[in-house]
Specification:
Blueprint: H1 8-15, E1 28-34, E2 41-42, E3 48-49, E4 52-53, E5 56-65, E6 71-77, E7 84-92, H2 96-99, H3 102-123, E8 128-139, E9 142-157, E10 160-174, E11 178-187, H4 193-202
Antiparallel strand pairs: 1-5, 2-3, 4-5, 5-6, 6-7, 7-11, 8-9, 9-10, 10-11
Helix pairs in contact: 1-3
Length: 207
């Protein structure tokens, strides 16, 4: 397994002034609710969820709070040769000022990333972490520090139990206020890393 390097990339970005004024957390809904909309959906962060990305159709748009600050969009490729399920989440995160210092913010980002991985570990048996790393990622023309992990496990896909591969991307300080999370899942012998990368690059948030 490839280990995460020291958090220098995250710390350098925060030291450069990634934080903004503080904000309160969103008021969560008792149950997640659908967002009924045709056409592109623009999130308050300025990020957009179009109806198609890299040839993959958008499915359910979901909001988790009353102000629609915490939102996700699911995309599914139904090509039998390249099946891929993608979900993008955008939600408010604590700012550097709220946390206290850049070093504490880095620790909080790493802890959140670990919690995101734990969600997968708890839902599936025999999960194997294949790799995890930090890397620079472009979001709307600005480079942000990002975290990425690839995991493998067995579960049902289209009614058949098989080996699956899941990729998690996390941009913890978008605009100094938002967390952007990508989750991709596909049969291990199905979609390729190149197809995941194509989606990441073509989603309007990455331009």
């Amino acid at each position: 397994m490839k280990s995460l390097p020291p958090a220098a990339l995250l710390l350098a970005a925060l030291a450069g002034g990634c934080g903004t004024a503080g904000s309160t957390g969103p008021a969560e809904l008792a149950e997640p609710g659908p967002v009924s909309l045709r056409g592109p959906y623009e999130h308050p962060s300025g990020l957009e969820f179009p109806e198609r990305v890299a040839g993959i159709e958008r499915g359910r748009l979901t909001r988790y709070d009353r102000e629609s600050l915490d939102v996700s969009a699911g995309y599914t490729c139904r090509d039998d040769h390249h099946p891929l399920a993608a979900t993008i989440y955008v939600y408010p995160g604590p700012t550097v000022e709220q946390i206290g210092s850049p070093k504490e913010a880095v620790a909080a980002a790493m802890a959140h990333f670990q919690a995101v991985k734990e969600e997968v570990l708890k839902k599936h048996d025999g999960v194997r972490v294949v790799s995890e790393e930090q890397f620079p990622m472009m979001v709307k023309g600005t480079e942000y520090p990002a975290l990425r992990a690839t995991l493998e496990f067995e579960d049902e896909w289209a009614g058949t139990r098989m080996p699956l591969r899941s990729h998690i991307y996390l941009v913890p300080f978008y605009g100094g206020r938002w967390i952007v999370k990508y989750r991709f899942t596909h049969p291990k012998d199905g979609a390729s890393e190149a197809e995941v990368q194509a989606f990441v690059k073509e989603w309007p948030g990455a331009r």
